[in-house]
Amino acid sequence: MSNVNCSSVMNDYSIEPVVDSELYEVEEIRHLYDLFDVISVHKIQNPLLWGLYTLRKNEMEINNRNIIVNEWLLYHVTATKNVQSIAENNLDWRFTSRCRYGKGVCFSYCPLYANKYASCAQGSSSAVDYDENIMDILINMGFPREAVKRALFYTYNQGLECAIKWLMDHITDNNFAEPFVPSRHNFNSVMIEISIERAFIICRVLVQSIKDVSVNYHLNVIPNIFDTAKSTNGMVYVKFNDYEFYPQYIVYYREHNLSQYSDPYSYNFNYNYCVDQ
């Protein structure tokens, strides 16, 4: 990880609308028009971040000449309030929460999966993604499975302590152990100040050495002989080092019925990302 201190460096950047020709030329942008209600598309021009990214790419090539440094365009979904900070300072692994594959910045080649992952973290109306590790612990403690599902849903999978507190607070509820299938009303009730609009950040990502990683909420980083973690389902790539990714495009969008309920695994976007490195 580079030790360059950028706090004293003037960082002039701009966010410009993408011209029509580029909208058609970039496949990763075209996918989003097919799957979501795209509001607008912009391109980030940040010479400082681009220079640091280029420098890091050169370092990776020099440090290990035997392995090619791949450069991929991958998706990251965020709230619109984060866009300006990302354009100026890049994505920051230090703000990562709900770390399933290590404390890093998560990307995906599949926009549906990137949207679903962000939706679960924010409590939207996409499919519920229960934390299986915490679920097993709570069931072994004697709590009914359906009650555990309720607890994880209403605490946004934020951890064991939060779930236990919810269970103890609601243990006398009449429906405590009844089957739990979240309705649209349930989803709406947990959405607190979440804008309908969100943004895809399409990033250039440097990938050289990959380690396959299973879900592990206690994992911080991977061995330093690897630069990228990949989920065992092949959908998520996690970067742990600064400047190994550059935010290139911002795509503001809304979900529609297709994107809310589509199965990410049913779409063939680009299998180049699944090739063993």
TrEMBL record:
Domain UBA: 129-170
Matching InterPro entries: ARTD-AVP, Poly(ADP-ribose)pol_cat_dom, UBA, UBA-like_sf
Any one of the GO CC terms: nucleus
Pfam hit, one: PARP
Gene Ontology MF, one: NAD+ poly-ADP-ribosyltransferase activity
Signal peptide range in chain numbering: none
Coiled-coil regions listed: none
Record's protein name: UBA domain-containing protein
Higher taxonomy: Eukaryota, Metazoa, Ecdysozoa, Arthropoda, Hexapoda
